[in-house]
């Protein structure tokens, strides 16, 4: 993403064989060993960040060909994370960093969310083919209107979660997305809170 920001021309794609300082949302570490994952940053046209985050999650899942999406864009297979997205505004553009675990055979045991790779889930795919599929999917979903992205996003209602909001940890039940793509959670005290960023975990 640092390299992509140096020349944020729409359509530019920067890939890395490995990342020595890969991070996800909230500065969490992203394990990026050489030759075992797909690590790319794409420069996209400006779009509201919450909506583009949802679109990128849909795109990553389509490129992989399976999986569930945990709001806003983590792709999980059998409850384990195999792909994540980080988007940052850079002037008139959005820099989208996407990491997909492809052939890793093991992960640290102390990760906040258990991780997996396509290989561990029995899927055999080349990183080159996956990159082509990802580019096509990102092109498709990032061009959709916000209303269509929200319509295609999986149902997120009725799930009991723990989330970070307004500097504190809350617990409650999800009650859908608002028109901007943010997650709404009804806390146990009846208060409805809008979650503006990730950090949502199932209970």
Beta-strand residue fraction: 25-35%
Computed structural class: alpha+beta
Give Rg in angstroms: 16 Å
Strand order, largest beta sheet: 1-2-6-5-4-3
Q: How far apart are the first and last residues' alpha carbons, in Å?
A: 33 Å
The outline comes out as: globular
Number of helical segments? Answer: 4
Mean pLDDT metric = 91
What's the assembly state of these chains?
A: single chain
Write the element-wise H/E pattern from the N-terminal end onward: HEEHEEEEHHEEEEE
Question: Approximately how much helix is present in the residues?
Answer: 10-25%
Describe the main β-sheet briefly.
6 strands, antiparallel
Low-pLDDT stretches are: none
Number of strands: 11
Overview of this structure, please?
A six-stranded antiparallel sheet has the order 1-2-6-5-4-3. α2 packs antiparallel against α3 and α2 (49-64) crosses α4. It is α+β, with helices and mostly antiparallel strands. It contains four helices and eleven strands.
């Amino acid at each position: 993403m640092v390299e992509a920001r140096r020349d944020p021309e729409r359509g530019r794609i920067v890939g890395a064989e490995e990342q020595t300082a890969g991070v996800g949302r909230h500065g969490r570490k992203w394990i990026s060993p050489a030759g075992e994952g797909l690590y790319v940053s794409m420069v996209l046209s400006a779009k509201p960040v919450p909506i583009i985050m949802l679109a990128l999650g849909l795109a990553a899942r389509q490129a992989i060909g399976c999986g569930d999406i945990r709001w806003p864009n983590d792709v999980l297979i059998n409850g384990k994370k195999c792909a994540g997205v980080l988007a940052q505004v850079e002037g008139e553009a959005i820099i989208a960093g996407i990491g997909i675990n492809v052939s890793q055979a093991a992960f640290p045991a102390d990760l906040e969310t258990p991780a997996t790779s396509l290989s561990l889930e029995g899927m055999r795919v080349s990183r080159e083919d996956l990159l082509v599929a990802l580019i096509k999917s990102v092109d498709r979903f990032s061009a959709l209107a916000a209303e269509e992205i929200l319509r295609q996003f999986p149902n997120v209602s009725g799930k009991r979660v723990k989330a970070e909001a307004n500097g504190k940890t809350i617990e409650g039940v999800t009650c859908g997305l608002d028109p901007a793509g943010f997650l709404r959670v009804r806390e146990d005290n009846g208060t409805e809170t809008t979650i503006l960023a990730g950090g949502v975990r199932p209970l």
